[in-house]
Input
Amino acid sequence: MTDKYMPTSYESSVAAACERLGYGPTIESLMSLAALELKVEIPVVRDNGELAIFTGYRVQHQNVRGPCKGGLRYHPGVDIREVRELAALMTMKTALADIPLGGGKGGIACNPHEMSQRELEVLTRKFVKRIHREIGPNSDIMAPDVGTNAQTMGWIHSEYSAIYGHSPAAVTGKPLALGGSPGRDKATGHGLGIVVAEYARLHDKPLKGATAVVQGFGNVGFHAAQALISLGVKVIAISDSRSAVHHGEGIDLAALSAQKRARGSLKDTDGHNPVEPDALFEIPCDYLVPAALGNAIHAGNAARLACRTVVEGANTPITAEADLMLRERGVTIIPDILANAGGVIVSYFEWVQNLQRQVWSLEKVDTELELILGNAARGVFAHAAEANLDLRSAAFDIAVRRVKEALDATGF
Ligand code: NAD
Output
């Protein structure tokens, strides 16, 4: 076990759940300690001939309910604190979904947008060479996150299989041609739609004509916008890291996608008005979906949010302080460990398919996702109503209880 660390909103949510559930300080500490932390230095010869050294991390938080599971992030801001907190969050997410997996996370501090495909491939393969003894189908299974994609997972699969023999279950979010699952690409955003639909149904709030604003135009932001549009929601604004656009009648996702591909930005897409990215959260809407990076909503902007409900597409997009401010203002928050759990659930399906040498249809993936995520959502909404809790607290109660039950069952 490594030193205790102090994750922000995670730590306060776990501490409060342990108190409500009557668990002592030992259990609370266990929920906050990582089982293993790896830090590796990765030298890469850049295309210009210069040598660059990148720092990579992999944290395994808990494996009592199953192998550690979680994404790999490529971003300049990656550091051990962030990776620790995200690994712990994964333990809660897999427990809340009630799938037999634990929590892990990895990251490399780099800017993938300034690196060539060759450099990224070398970096990824060397990272696997450094950590391969600690990962694998029964210990720790990576997946895409910010700055990584199916191609990155394909390189991991290839490098790991070169050492251990064909091992598709060692990593998820792979290309379909390498044993990836149908529906994994859209899973996180699609799942967000399932959770919002369940929330709206339960609270008798029609989605047709409701409005949404989405921050982020990557895997989660794009597919969340698509899922909401297919539910009849009018997505009136969306952003990427450099631009934001507004369309009162609803954005044209296909046109924005084409513009992003052609120009690398959403700016100047026909029929869409530019918005200052900082003003995005101030646009009145029913659902605000932060789907970019952590801490996007903080004490400095929380008071200006003009939505009724925040749906956390990203992991930890709201600081602990802002969370409190929003709840005091009566803004509902659908927490990350529920709202974006679709990704890890379909990653679980991919792992199962790979272990059993099966290929599921997209229909089967979608049906099973709806079942598991729908159950998780109904469980959170019911517990929140019964215990008079906000949704994050209700979700953490359920997740912490499941991890504790598994620890107890080991004779701990
Ligand atoms: P991605 O790299 O595909 O996309 C990130 C997007 O965020 C990009 O469009 C980028 O331009 C945008 N962005 C960055 N900074 C921004 C800013 N300040 N304002 C607006 N946009 C900004 O990453 P992703 O996979 O979509 O992940 C997004 C979030 O969702 C992360 O918090 C990640 O941990 C979480 N998440 C991802 C998955 C998954 O399956 N990919 C699953 C669960 C949670």
Notes: The chain has a mean pLDDT of 95. Residues 187-339 form a domain with the Rossmann fold fold (CATH 3.40.50.720). The chain has 13 helices and twelve strands. The CA atoms of residues 187 and 351 lie 14 Å apart.
